[in-house]
Amino acid sequence: MADHRDHPGNGFAADAEPRHDWTRVEAQALYDAPFNDLLFRAHLVHRRHFDPNKVQKSRLLSIKTGGCPEDCGYCSQSAHHKTSLPASKLMEVERVLSEARKAKEAGATRYCMGAAWRSPKDRDMDVVVAMVEGVRALGMESCMTLGMLSVEDVMRLKDAGLDYYNHNIDTSERYYDKVITTRSFADRLDTLARVREAGIKVCSGGIVGMGEGADDRVDMLVTLANLPTHPESVPINMLVPIEGTPMAEAEKIEPIAFVRTIALARIMMPRSFVRLSAGRTAMSDEMQALCFFAGANSVFVGDTLLTADNPGDDADSVLFGKLGIGDLPLAELQRCG
Ligand code: SAM
Ligand code: DTB
Ligand code: SF4
Predict the structure, then answer these.
(1) Strand, helix or coil at 209?
(2) Helix %, strand %, coil % of the chain (to 5)
(3) How do residues 257-288 score in pLDDT, each as one tens digit?
(4) How many CB atoms lie within 10 A of CB 152?
């Protein structure tokens, strides 16, 4: 069989090298193109850089749940909203590592740990560092998402060997204050720049289905694609509506618009892993299949995300079996891109 990177002459030579000078107008034109044209182009870009039949699997764990001082309008964990979620303290290192071991046995290559903080306190950092070291010793990639970081925090995480830091820009700069008022879009970009500067890989994406317009989805992706280096991992979350949050009743995103968002991310950030993230329990198999065709090549596995449901290993193995999609082992993963 032909190498997956082989492709017929297709007239999209400019897709070969990542660009960092996307304009809103050209990105919007891609997003608005006839669906088949958009998907065809995204799929060609995808095949040029990745095996289209392999998906990277990450597993999430909430290491500190609830009681967060930030007011993110989508989040079950914000102390500003009346959700049914009880707050808990930072987990013990051994418990985290025992969960990480199970995730590895179930096929995850990256272990992502999330805390409901605006930013970590100094005393938390010792514990977090031990978690990173423990996960790496298990032979998995480590990822943390802890809120805003100082230069000192970033250096400690780098020294511990942290592979990825997740910090989402969530939406466009224009729509940002409709979603969050306790921090700014610029705050997010500052932390991302510190993480990049320290040499930690960047995971940054956003949420769609929060009542934003197509222009907000496009602008969010333009911001990410015009960073000096593309995030290695770009999670695209579909809002999981949480009762008691201001976004509980937000208008749902139309599935085709969601697929367009994935396709645009793939075209603009050709070498990044685009993760089909939160919201998969509300997606049909066909919608997920279209997302994989459009260039998504990473998912969260297991039956919970941080606090919300995820399809679980049995449902995923049925889906991936039907689609002929296999795992991307760690060794292969490190050669990608
Ligand atoms: N507190 C840290 C922060 O905000 O960076 C880390 C944890 S936070 C829960 C990680 C990301 O999860 C958010 O940036 C957001 O993109 C995503 N997220 C949170 N709640 C969500 C929801 N209900 N639906 C979809 N994505 C969600
Ligand atoms: C990301 O972009 N999505 C993940 C991860 N990064 C940390 C989180 C999704 C959270 C979904 C809602 C919940 O589980 O509470
Ligand atoms: Fe806190 Fe993160 Fe939730 Fe915002 S998204 S409320 S920062 S846990």
Answers:
(1) coil
(2) 40, 15, 45
(3) 999 999 999 999 999 999 999 999 999 999 99
(4) 11
Spacing, Cα 305 to ligand 2 middle (Å) = 6
**How far apart are alpha carbons 334 and 337 in whole angstroms?**
8
Q: What single DSSP character describes residue 280?
A: G
Which pTM value belongs to this model? 0.95
- CA 160 to each of CA 9, 142, 249: distance values in angstroms, whole numbers, following the listed order: 45, 10, 41
| Average pLDDT value for the chain | 94
Pick the closest to residue 7 from 38, 48, 57, 39 (CA basis): 48
Residues labelled as active-site residues? 68, 72, 75, 112, 143, 203, 275
Contact partners, residue 2, CB within 8 Å, separation at least 6: none
Give the SS3 label for residue 202.
strand
For the Cβ of 308 lying below 6 angstroms from any atom of ligand 2, the answer is yes
